[in-house]
Design brief:
CATH topology of the largest domain: MetI-like fold
Number of strands: 9
Shape: elongated
CATH superfamily of the largest domain: MetI-like
CATH architecture of the largest domain: Orthogonal Bundle
Structural class: alpha+beta
Length: about 450
Protein backbone atom coordinates (compact mmCIF):
# COMPACT_ATOMS: atom_id res chain seq x y z
CA UNK A 1 0.00 0.00 0.00
CA UNK A 2 2.83 2.38 0.93
CA UNK A 3 4.75 1.58 -2.22
CA UNK A 4 1.67 2.16 -4.32
CA UNK A 5 1.10 5.56 -2.59
CA UNK A 6 4.67 6.65 -3.20
CA UNK A 7 4.43 5.68 -6.81
CA UNK A 8 1.23 7.67 -7.28
CA UNK A 9 2.45 10.87 -5.58
CA UNK A 10 5.93 11.04 -7.14
CA UNK A 11 6.21 13.59 -10.00
CA UNK A 12 6.55 12.20 -13.49
CA UNK A 13 9.91 12.54 -15.22
CA UNK A 14 10.21 15.57 -17.52
CA UNK A 15 9.16 14.93 -21.05
CA UNK A 16 11.97 14.99 -23.57
CA UNK A 17 11.37 17.25 -26.55
CA UNK A 18 11.69 15.61 -29.92
CA UNK A 19 14.75 16.60 -31.96
CA UNK A 20 12.69 18.72 -34.38
CA UNK A 21 11.16 20.77 -31.52
CA UNK A 22 14.59 21.33 -29.96
CA UNK A 23 15.90 22.46 -33.33
CA UNK A 24 13.01 24.94 -33.76
CA UNK A 25 13.54 26.36 -30.26
CA UNK A 26 17.26 26.78 -30.89
CA UNK A 27 16.54 28.44 -34.21
CA UNK A 28 14.06 30.82 -32.56
CA UNK A 29 16.63 31.85 -29.96
CA UNK A 30 19.21 32.53 -32.68
CA UNK A 31 16.73 34.64 -34.66
CA UNK A 32 15.78 36.59 -31.53
CA UNK A 33 19.43 37.18 -30.76
CA UNK A 34 20.04 38.43 -34.32
CA UNK A 35 17.19 40.92 -33.94
CA UNK A 36 18.50 42.11 -30.57
CA UNK A 37 22.16 42.20 -31.66
CA UNK A 38 22.06 45.66 -33.38
CA UNK A 39 20.50 47.21 -30.27
CA UNK A 40 23.10 45.49 -28.06
CA UNK A 41 25.92 46.75 -30.28
CA UNK A 42 24.58 50.28 -30.16
CA UNK A 43 24.08 50.05 -26.40
CA UNK A 44 27.61 48.81 -25.95
CA UNK A 45 29.12 51.43 -28.25
CA UNK A 46 27.14 54.42 -26.99
CA UNK A 47 26.65 53.56 -23.30
CA UNK A 48 28.74 50.71 -21.92
CA UNK A 49 32.05 51.55 -23.61
CA UNK A 50 31.94 55.31 -22.78
CA UNK A 51 31.09 54.52 -19.15
CA UNK A 52 33.92 52.02 -18.78
CA UNK A 53 36.36 54.30 -20.62
CA UNK A 54 35.41 57.28 -18.41
CA UNK A 55 35.88 55.21 -15.26
CA UNK A 56 39.33 54.13 -16.42
CA UNK A 57 40.29 57.61 -17.65
CA UNK A 58 39.39 59.12 -14.28
CA UNK A 59 42.40 57.37 -12.73
CA UNK A 60 44.89 59.09 -15.04
CA UNK A 61 46.31 62.61 -15.18
CA UNK A 62 45.37 65.37 -17.66
CA UNK A 63 47.60 63.94 -20.39
CA UNK A 64 46.33 60.42 -19.86
CA UNK A 65 49.86 59.03 -19.64
CA UNK A 66 50.38 58.77 -15.86
CA UNK A 67 48.25 56.74 -13.44
CA UNK A 68 47.28 58.92 -10.47
CA UNK A 69 44.79 56.68 -8.68
CA UNK A 70 42.14 58.61 -6.78
CA UNK A 71 43.90 61.97 -7.08
CA UNK A 72 41.27 63.31 -9.51
CA UNK A 73 38.49 62.40 -7.08
CA UNK A 74 40.20 64.14 -4.19
CA UNK A 75 41.02 67.16 -6.38
CA UNK A 76 37.37 67.29 -7.39
CA UNK A 77 36.31 68.11 -3.84
CA UNK A 78 39.15 70.58 -3.26
CA UNK A 79 38.29 72.70 -6.28
CA UNK A 80 36.01 75.67 -5.31
CA UNK A 81 34.38 75.67 -8.76
CA UNK A 82 33.46 72.00 -8.43
CA UNK A 83 32.08 72.52 -4.94
CA UNK A 84 29.96 75.38 -6.30
CA UNK A 85 28.75 73.08 -9.09
CA UNK A 86 27.75 70.46 -6.50
CA UNK A 87 25.91 73.13 -4.50
CA UNK A 88 24.07 74.42 -7.57
CA UNK A 89 23.18 70.88 -8.63
CA UNK A 90 21.73 70.27 -5.17
CA UNK A 91 19.65 73.46 -5.52
CA UNK A 92 18.38 72.25 -8.88
CA UNK A 93 17.48 68.80 -7.53
CA UNK A 94 15.65 70.20 -4.51
CA UNK A 95 13.83 73.10 -6.18
CA UNK A 96 13.08 72.32 -9.84
CA UNK A 97 11.42 68.85 -9.59
CA UNK A 98 9.35 69.88 -6.56
CA UNK A 99 8.11 73.06 -8.25
CA UNK A 100 7.40 71.27 -11.52
CA UNK A 101 5.50 68.45 -9.83
CA UNK A 102 3.47 70.93 -7.78
CA UNK A 103 2.71 73.14 -10.77
CA UNK A 104 1.85 70.15 -12.91
CA UNK A 105 -0.54 68.83 -10.26
CA UNK A 106 -2.27 72.19 -9.75
CA UNK A 107 -2.62 72.83 -13.48
CA UNK A 108 -3.83 69.29 -14.19
CA UNK A 109 -6.58 69.66 -11.58
CA UNK A 110 -7.57 73.16 -12.76
CA UNK A 111 -7.53 72.26 -16.46
CA UNK A 112 -10.27 69.70 -15.83
CA UNK A 113 -12.57 72.59 -14.97
CA UNK A 114 -11.65 74.70 -18.02
CA UNK A 115 -13.91 74.63 -21.03
CA UNK A 116 -11.08 74.72 -23.56
CA UNK A 117 -8.93 72.19 -21.70
CA UNK A 118 -7.33 70.69 -24.82
CA UNK A 119 -6.21 74.07 -26.18
CA UNK A 120 -4.87 75.06 -22.76
CA UNK A 121 -2.87 71.82 -22.50
CA UNK A 122 -1.52 72.36 -26.00
CA UNK A 123 -0.32 75.85 -25.13
CA UNK A 124 1.45 74.65 -21.99
CA UNK A 125 2.97 71.66 -23.75
CA UNK A 126 4.26 73.62 -26.76
CA UNK A 127 7.58 74.66 -25.08
CA UNK A 128 8.51 70.95 -25.06
CA UNK A 129 8.78 71.24 -28.85
CA UNK A 130 11.43 73.98 -28.48
CA UNK A 131 15.01 72.79 -28.22
CA UNK A 132 17.02 73.69 -25.15
CA UNK A 133 19.33 75.72 -27.38
CA UNK A 134 16.46 77.84 -28.72
CA UNK A 135 14.90 78.15 -25.26
CA UNK A 136 18.24 79.28 -23.85
CA UNK A 137 18.58 81.99 -26.50
CA UNK A 138 14.98 83.13 -25.89
CA UNK A 139 15.51 83.49 -22.15
CA UNK A 140 18.97 85.02 -22.56
CA UNK A 141 17.23 87.82 -24.44
CA UNK A 142 14.28 87.94 -22.03
CA UNK A 143 16.66 88.32 -19.08
CA UNK A 144 18.78 91.02 -20.75
CA UNK A 145 19.57 93.84 -18.34
CA UNK A 146 18.86 96.53 -20.94
CA UNK A 147 15.13 97.39 -20.68
CA UNK A 148 15.11 98.10 -24.42
CA UNK A 149 16.02 94.45 -25.08
CA UNK A 150 14.96 92.35 -22.08
CA UNK A 151 11.19 91.98 -21.82
CA UNK A 152 11.29 91.20 -18.09
CA UNK A 153 13.29 94.30 -17.26
CA UNK A 154 11.08 96.37 -19.55
CA UNK A 155 8.08 95.25 -17.49
CA UNK A 156 9.94 95.82 -14.19
CA UNK A 157 10.96 99.33 -15.23
CA UNK A 158 7.44 100.17 -16.36
CA UNK A 159 5.92 99.05 -13.06
CA UNK A 160 8.62 100.84 -11.03
CA UNK A 161 8.23 104.11 -12.93
CA UNK A 162 4.44 103.93 -12.68
CA UNK A 163 4.62 103.93 -8.87
CA UNK A 164 7.76 105.93 -8.06
CA UNK A 165 8.35 108.02 -11.15
CA UNK A 166 11.72 108.76 -12.70
CA UNK A 167 14.08 111.70 -12.98
CA UNK A 168 14.14 113.70 -16.21
CA UNK A 169 17.70 114.95 -15.61
CA UNK A 170 19.91 112.02 -14.51
CA UNK A 171 23.00 113.55 -16.14
CA UNK A 172 22.51 117.16 -14.95
CA UNK A 173 25.12 118.78 -12.73
CA UNK A 174 26.11 122.26 -11.56
CA UNK A 175 29.13 124.11 -12.89
CA UNK A 176 31.98 124.50 -10.44
CA UNK A 177 32.20 127.98 -8.91
CA UNK A 178 28.69 129.03 -9.93
CA UNK A 179 27.20 129.11 -6.41
CA UNK A 180 25.65 125.65 -6.20
CA UNK A 181 27.31 123.31 -3.72
CA UNK A 182 26.90 119.53 -4.10
CA UNK A 183 26.00 117.56 -0.99
CA UNK A 184 27.05 114.00 -0.15
CA UNK A 185 23.58 112.68 -0.99
CA UNK A 186 23.73 114.14 -4.54
CA UNK A 187 21.58 117.21 -3.91
CA UNK A 188 22.65 120.82 -4.59
CA UNK A 189 22.20 123.84 -2.31
CA UNK A 190 22.75 127.59 -2.28
CA UNK A 191 21.85 130.50 -0.02
CA UNK A 192 19.09 133.05 -0.75
CA UNK A 193 16.86 135.54 1.07
CA UNK A 194 13.26 136.64 0.68
CA UNK A 195 12.78 139.42 -1.83
CA UNK A 196 15.60 137.97 -3.92
CA UNK A 197 15.51 136.31 -7.35
CA UNK A 198 18.18 133.64 -7.90
CA UNK A 199 19.42 131.87 -11.01
CA UNK A 200 20.47 128.24 -10.72
CA UNK A 201 22.37 127.08 -13.78
CA UNK A 202 22.88 123.38 -14.61
CA UNK A 203 24.80 121.67 -17.39
CA UNK A 204 25.15 118.12 -18.64
CA UNK A 205 21.71 117.88 -20.27
CA UNK A 206 21.76 117.41 -24.07
CA UNK A 207 19.39 119.98 -25.62
CA UNK A 208 17.65 117.22 -27.62
CA UNK A 209 16.76 115.46 -24.35
CA UNK A 210 14.97 118.43 -22.83
CA UNK A 211 11.33 117.75 -21.93
CA UNK A 212 8.74 118.68 -24.51
CA UNK A 213 7.36 122.14 -23.81
CA UNK A 214 10.53 123.56 -22.26
CA UNK A 215 10.61 127.34 -22.85
CA UNK A 216 13.42 129.94 -22.87
CA UNK A 217 14.49 130.97 -19.38
CA UNK A 218 15.53 134.56 -20.16
CA UNK A 219 12.12 136.25 -19.65
CA UNK A 220 11.70 134.55 -16.26
CA UNK A 221 15.25 135.47 -15.21
CA UNK A 222 14.59 139.14 -16.07
CA UNK A 223 11.65 139.41 -13.67
CA UNK A 224 12.21 140.90 -10.23
CA UNK A 225 11.12 139.08 -7.08
CA UNK A 226 8.14 140.52 -5.21
CA UNK A 227 8.86 141.76 -1.66
CA UNK A 228 8.61 138.88 0.78
CA UNK A 229 8.78 136.25 -1.97
CA UNK A 230 11.68 134.01 -2.88
CA UNK A 231 11.83 133.26 -6.58
CA UNK A 232 14.25 132.27 -9.29
CA UNK A 233 14.86 130.15 -12.34
CA UNK A 234 16.61 126.85 -12.98
CA UNK A 235 18.00 126.77 -16.50
CA UNK A 236 20.35 124.90 -18.80
CA UNK A 237 23.51 126.98 -18.82
CA UNK A 238 24.37 126.05 -22.38
CA UNK A 239 23.77 127.96 -25.60
CA UNK A 240 23.09 125.73 -28.63
CA UNK A 241 25.59 126.48 -31.36
CA UNK A 242 28.03 128.15 -28.96
CA UNK A 243 28.31 131.64 -27.55
CA UNK A 244 26.71 132.97 -24.39
CA UNK A 245 28.33 133.59 -21.03
CA UNK A 246 28.71 131.09 -18.22
CA UNK A 247 26.56 131.84 -15.20
CA UNK A 248 24.24 134.24 -17.07
CA UNK A 249 20.92 133.40 -18.72
CA UNK A 250 21.27 133.82 -22.47
CA UNK A 251 18.22 134.57 -24.62
CA UNK A 252 18.55 131.20 -26.39
CA UNK A 253 19.04 129.09 -23.26
CA UNK A 254 16.17 126.93 -22.07
CA UNK A 255 14.59 126.61 -18.66
CA UNK A 256 14.43 123.19 -16.96
CA UNK A 257 10.83 122.32 -16.10
CA UNK A 258 9.61 119.84 -13.46
CA UNK A 259 12.60 120.27 -11.13
CA UNK A 260 11.80 120.11 -7.42
CA UNK A 261 13.09 123.09 -5.38
CA UNK A 262 12.99 123.23 -1.58
CA UNK A 263 13.30 126.23 0.74
CA UNK A 264 15.07 125.06 3.92
CA UNK A 265 15.54 126.91 7.20
CA UNK A 266 17.14 125.54 10.38
CA UNK A 267 17.44 122.10 8.80
CA UNK A 268 13.69 121.83 8.08
CA UNK A 269 11.95 122.16 4.73
CA UNK A 270 9.76 125.26 4.92
CA UNK A 271 8.26 124.98 1.43
CA UNK A 272 8.54 122.92 -1.74
CA UNK A 273 7.69 123.80 -5.32
CA UNK A 274 8.32 122.64 -8.88
CA UNK A 275 9.73 124.69 -11.75
CA UNK A 276 7.46 125.78 -14.58
CA UNK A 277 8.03 125.20 -18.28
CA UNK A 278 10.49 128.12 -18.39
CA UNK A 279 12.34 126.86 -15.31
CA UNK A 280 10.91 129.54 -12.99
CA UNK A 281 9.83 128.89 -9.40
CA UNK A 282 8.36 131.08 -6.64
CA UNK A 283 7.84 130.69 -2.89
CA UNK A 284 5.19 132.93 -1.31
CA UNK A 285 4.17 133.36 2.32
CA UNK A 286 7.61 132.61 3.74
CA UNK A 287 8.86 134.28 6.87
CA UNK A 288 11.32 137.00 6.00
CA UNK A 289 15.00 136.20 6.23
CA UNK A 290 17.67 133.92 4.84
CA UNK A 291 16.95 130.45 3.47
CA UNK A 292 18.81 127.64 1.86
CA UNK A 293 17.54 126.66 -1.59
CA UNK A 294 18.01 122.97 -2.27
CA UNK A 295 17.63 120.89 -5.42
CA UNK A 296 17.00 117.37 -4.01
CA UNK A 297 18.97 114.40 -5.28
CA UNK A 298 15.73 112.92 -6.69
CA UNK A 299 16.02 115.47 -9.52
CA UNK A 300 19.24 113.81 -10.67
CA UNK A 301 18.64 110.17 -9.76
CA UNK A 302 19.77 107.68 -12.35
CA UNK A 303 16.85 105.95 -14.07
CA UNK A 304 15.80 102.56 -12.73
CA UNK A 305 17.50 99.94 -14.90
CA UNK A 306 15.56 96.91 -13.71
CA UNK A 307 16.74 93.70 -12.08
CA UNK A 308 20.05 91.99 -12.74
CA UNK A 309 18.47 88.64 -13.57
CA UNK A 310 21.75 87.17 -14.77
CA UNK A 311 23.88 88.56 -11.95
CA UNK A 312 25.71 86.28 -9.51
CA UNK A 313 22.78 86.22 -7.06
CA UNK A 314 19.82 85.50 -9.36
CA UNK A 315 21.38 83.61 -12.26
CA UNK A 316 20.54 80.12 -10.94
CA UNK A 317 16.89 80.94 -10.05
CA UNK A 318 16.55 82.64 -13.45
CA UNK A 319 17.75 79.53 -15.30
CA UNK A 320 15.47 77.34 -13.19
CA UNK A 321 12.62 79.63 -14.28
CA UNK A 322 13.46 78.91 -17.92
CA UNK A 323 13.52 75.18 -17.14
CA UNK A 324 10.07 75.43 -15.54
CA UNK A 325 8.72 77.12 -18.66
CA UNK A 326 9.86 74.16 -20.76
CA UNK A 327 8.87 71.24 -18.53
CA UNK A 328 5.65 72.36 -16.81
CA UNK A 329 3.57 71.09 -19.72
CA UNK A 330 5.25 67.68 -19.49
CA UNK A 331 4.44 67.34 -15.80
CA UNK A 332 0.87 68.56 -16.32
CA UNK A 333 0.15 66.09 -19.13
CA UNK A 334 1.52 63.08 -17.23
CA UNK A 335 -0.31 63.97 -14.04
CA UNK A 336 -3.44 64.76 -16.04
CA UNK A 337 -3.30 61.26 -17.54
CA UNK A 338 -3.15 59.80 -14.04
CA UNK A 339 -5.97 62.08 -12.95
CA UNK A 340 -8.17 60.75 -15.75
CA UNK A 341 -7.88 57.22 -14.34
CA UNK A 342 -9.06 58.12 -10.82
CA UNK A 343 -12.32 56.44 -9.74
CA UNK A 344 -14.96 59.12 -10.13
CA UNK A 345 -17.32 57.35 -7.75
CA UNK A 346 -14.90 58.01 -4.86
CA UNK A 347 -14.83 61.72 -5.67
CA UNK A 348 -18.60 61.92 -6.02
CA UNK A 349 -19.09 60.02 -2.77
CA UNK A 350 -16.83 62.50 -0.99
CA UNK A 351 -18.85 65.41 -2.39
CA UNK A 352 -22.08 63.80 -1.28
CA UNK A 353 -20.63 63.40 2.21
CA UNK A 354 -20.09 67.16 2.34
CA UNK A 355 -16.36 67.41 1.56
CA UNK A 356 -15.29 70.63 -0.15
CA UNK A 357 -12.94 70.74 -3.14
CA UNK A 358 -9.85 71.44 -1.03
CA UNK A 359 -10.56 68.43 1.20
CA UNK A 360 -11.16 66.23 -1.84
CA UNK A 361 -7.91 67.42 -3.40
CA UNK A 362 -5.85 66.94 -0.24
CA UNK A 363 -7.30 63.69 1.09
CA UNK A 364 -8.40 61.82 -2.03
CA UNK A 365 -6.85 63.18 -5.23
CA UNK A 366 -3.27 63.57 -3.99
CA UNK A 367 -3.08 60.15 -2.19
CA UNK A 368 -4.52 58.35 -5.23
CA UNK A 369 -2.09 60.17 -7.52
CA UNK A 370 0.93 59.44 -5.30
CA UNK A 371 2.40 56.76 -7.63
CA UNK A 372 2.13 59.06 -10.66
CA UNK A 373 3.55 62.02 -8.74
CA UNK A 374 6.48 59.90 -7.60
CA UNK A 375 7.27 58.78 -11.14
CA UNK A 376 7.09 62.36 -12.44
CA UNK A 377 9.26 63.65 -9.59
CA UNK A 378 11.95 60.98 -9.99
CA UNK A 379 12.00 61.39 -13.78
CA UNK A 380 12.51 65.14 -13.36
CA UNK A 381 15.26 64.55 -10.79
CA UNK A 382 17.14 62.42 -13.33
CA UNK A 383 16.63 65.05 -16.02
CA UNK A 384 17.70 67.92 -13.74
CA UNK A 385 20.96 66.23 -12.82
CA UNK A 386 21.92 66.19 -16.49
CA UNK A 387 20.92 69.78 -17.30
CA UNK A 388 23.59 71.45 -19.42
CA UNK A 389 22.25 73.45 -22.37
CA UNK A 390 20.27 76.06 -20.46
CA UNK A 391 23.04 76.77 -17.97
CA UNK A 392 25.72 77.04 -20.64
CA UNK A 393 23.68 79.29 -22.95
CA UNK A 394 21.82 81.57 -20.52
CA UNK A 395 24.59 82.29 -18.00
CA UNK A 396 26.93 85.05 -19.30
CA UNK A 397 30.66 84.43 -19.22
CA UNK A 398 31.41 86.49 -16.08
CA UNK A 399 28.86 84.54 -14.01
CA UNK A 400 29.30 81.17 -15.68
CA UNK A 401 31.06 79.85 -12.59
CA UNK A 402 28.26 81.11 -10.31
CA UNK A 403 25.66 79.17 -12.32
CA UNK A 404 27.67 76.06 -13.16
CA UNK A 405 26.31 72.59 -12.40
CA UNK A 406 28.05 69.23 -12.57
CA UNK A 407 27.34 68.70 -16.28
CA UNK A 408 28.65 72.12 -17.32
CA UNK A 409 31.61 71.84 -14.96
CA UNK A 410 32.50 68.48 -16.48
CA UNK A 411 32.47 70.04 -19.96
CA UNK A 412 34.41 73.14 -18.91
CA UNK A 413 37.08 71.09 -17.16
CA UNK A 414 37.43 68.66 -20.06
CA UNK A 415 36.92 70.75 -23.21
CA UNK A 416 36.06 74.34 -22.27
CA UNK A 417 39.58 75.49 -21.52
CA UNK A 418 40.57 73.22 -18.65
CA UNK A 419 41.92 70.43 -20.92
CA UNK A 420 41.95 68.03 -17.98
CA UNK A 421 39.98 65.02 -19.13
CA UNK A 422 41.08 63.02 -16.12
CA UNK A 423 39.30 65.38 -13.75
CA UNK A 424 36.43 65.72 -16.23
CA UNK A 425 36.03 61.93 -16.30
CA UNK A 426 35.94 61.86 -12.51
CA UNK A 427 33.14 64.44 -12.60
CA UNK A 428 31.31 62.30 -15.15
CA UNK A 429 31.60 59.26 -12.89
CA UNK A 430 30.29 61.29 -9.95
CA UNK A 431 27.33 62.42 -12.04
CA UNK A 432 26.66 58.80 -13.05
CA UNK A 433 26.74 57.65 -9.44
CA UNK A 434 24.22 60.34 -8.52
CA UNK A 435 21.86 59.47 -11.37
CA UNK A 436 21.94 55.67 -11.05
CA UNK A 437 20.01 55.43 -7.72
CA UNK A 438 17.17 57.52 -9.12
CA UNK A 439 17.08 55.38 -12.26
CA UNK A 440 17.03 52.16 -10.24
CA UNK A 441 14.23 53.52 -8.06
CA UNK A 442 12.21 54.42 -11.15
CA UNK A 443 12.74 51.01 -12.75
CA UNK A 444 11.61 49.21 -9.59
CA UNK A 445 8.47 51.31 -9.46
CA UNK A 446 7.71 50.45 -13.09
CA UNK A 447 8.13 46.74 -12.38
CA UNK A 448 5.93 46.90 -9.31
CA UNK A 449 3.23 48.75 -11.22
CA UNK A 450 3.33 46.10 -14.00
CA UNK A 451 2.78 43.34 -11.46
Amino acid sequence: MTATLVKETSSPPPATLPPRARSLRRRGRIIALLFVLPALLLLGALVVYPVLFSVGRSFFDASGAEFVGGENYSEMFRDPATLKAVRNSAIWVVVAPALLTGLGLILAVLVEKVRWATAFKLLLFMPMAVSFLAAGIIFRLAYDEDPDKGVLNAAAVSVHDAFTGTSAYPTARARDGQGLTKEADGSYRTSASTGEAVTLGLVGVPPKELPAGAEPAHPAAARQAAPGDLSGVVWLDFTPGGGGEEGKVDRRESGLPEITVEAVRDGRTAATTTTASDGSFRFTGLDRGAYELRLPASNFAAPYEGISWLGPVLVTPAIIGAYLWIWTGFAMVLIGAGLATLPRDALEAARMDGANEWQIFRRITVPLLAPVLTVVFVTLVINVMKVFDLVYIIAPGPVQEDATVLATQMWLVSFGGGNNQGLGSALGVLLLLLVVPAMVFNLRRFRRSQR
